[in-house]
Amino acid sequence: MTAFDQGPWPRDLLGAVQRAGYTEPTAIQAQSWPIALQGYDMISVAKTGSGKTVAFLFPGLMHIAERGNGRDARGPMMLALAPTRELATQIQEECYKFGQAAGVQSVCLYGGAPKGRQLSQLRARPQICIATPGRLNDLLESRMVDMSSATYVVLDEADRMLDMGFEPQIRRILQNVPVDRQTLFFTATWPKAVIRVATAILTNPIQVN
Ligand code: ADP
Ligand code: MG
Fold this sequence. Notes:
It contains nine helices and seven strands. The chain is an alpha/beta fold. Strand 3, helix 5 (115-122) and strand 4 (128-131) form a beta-alpha-beta unit. Magnesium ion binds at residues 52-53, 156.
């Protein structure tokens, strides 16, 4: 998919692309979309600044639309895990830019901030949850968040999350999302430790470099 208008994107989304000033998809976007849109699990090895957020967000927005925008969902349908508050917040900014016109809302859950405001945003029934693994695991354990509708799951900067020691939290989070889900795994590096985790949590993934 080498042009935005080759995708199945609704008019609203193409309008947001135009307003953002994006003229053509980045390589990772062009390669990821056909795979993600067909529902495959995916491993993407790509460096920072390559446009990964839009690579997983646009198919995620289509996934949400196919599920009727989540009117009957028990919780968010798309979950994106990121290593830090800063990276999680950056993802949320893209969600806002591109999801708003379609009425798609998001919540960003990270540690080091009070839970009250994050929980009240959850009550607005956002379709997308962006979270750092520690805080999300914490909220799942105290049953303050329901991830049983999260059928589109993204691990962003997965190598960094593993470096930071988040593997146990990630594993527990994945026990709380449907087994029958689509999982997208983004990493900047591809060492043995990362391969091992990717192999454990993905089903017949297609790899893009
Ligand atoms: P990564 O997650 O790979 O580091 P981002 O998704 O954060 O990259 O994107 C990096 C920057 O490029 C952001 O400022 C984003 O708005 C911009 N960007 C993403 N896709 C495009 C595109 N197709 N055309 C122009 N700019 C883009
Ligand atoms: Mg990123």
